[in-house]
Amino acid sequence: MKKMIITLAIAFSSLGAFANDENVSSKVLNAFTTDFQTATEIQWTTAADYYMATFVYNDKHLYAYYDKEGALIGLTRYLSPADLSMNLQMSLKKNYNNYWISDLFEVAKNDITTYYITIENADSRVVLKSSDSTTWSVFEKTKKA
Questions:
Q1: How far is the C-alpha of 104 from the C-alpha of 79, rounded, in Å?
Q2: What separation in angstroms does the CA of 39 have from each of 20, 30, 53, 55, 83?
Q3: Domain 2-76, what fold?
Q4: Which of 50, 108, 124, 128 sits between 20 and 30 A of 22, alpha carbons compared?
């Protein structure tokens, strides 16, 4: 399930079909309205197996993923490195000082928060994951061509 959420979060920008409320099932709309009553600037994107809502909630831009039955699959938001715990910031500085950050986001599902950060240097691209807000583990590593 976690790989599915990370894949959804990374892939959302490549989705082609933006939906208006009429194209989103009433189950999904009702679930979203219940979950995020004060959301604004809501835009829907559809895919084969899920819906994604992009919206503003408590002054933060969020992405909520729902299955066709209206169940919340996960919630993501982009972060600034300053939003990370000091432990995670220090670990990056210590272990990946010669890399730059190209992507950083948070995934929330079932009261568990996981952070994913993509770091790069001239030779490689590394996606790190933290589920405990204290340490990073390598989620994926690729060599650049």
A1: 6
A2: 16, 13, 10, 6, 22
A3: Nuclear Transport Factor 2; Chain: A, (3.10.450)
A4: 108
Question: In a structure prediction context, what are the per-residue pLDDT tens digits for the chain, which is 145 residues long?
Answer: 445 455 545 444 334 444 555 588 899 999 999 999 999 999 999 888 899 999 999 999 999 999 999 999 999 999 999 999 999 999 999 999 999 999 999 999 888 999 999 999 999 999 999 999 889 999 999 998 8
pTM score of the predicted model: 0.74
- The structure tokens listed for 74 are 């996960």
Where do the CATH 3.10.450.360 domains begin and end in the chain? 2-76
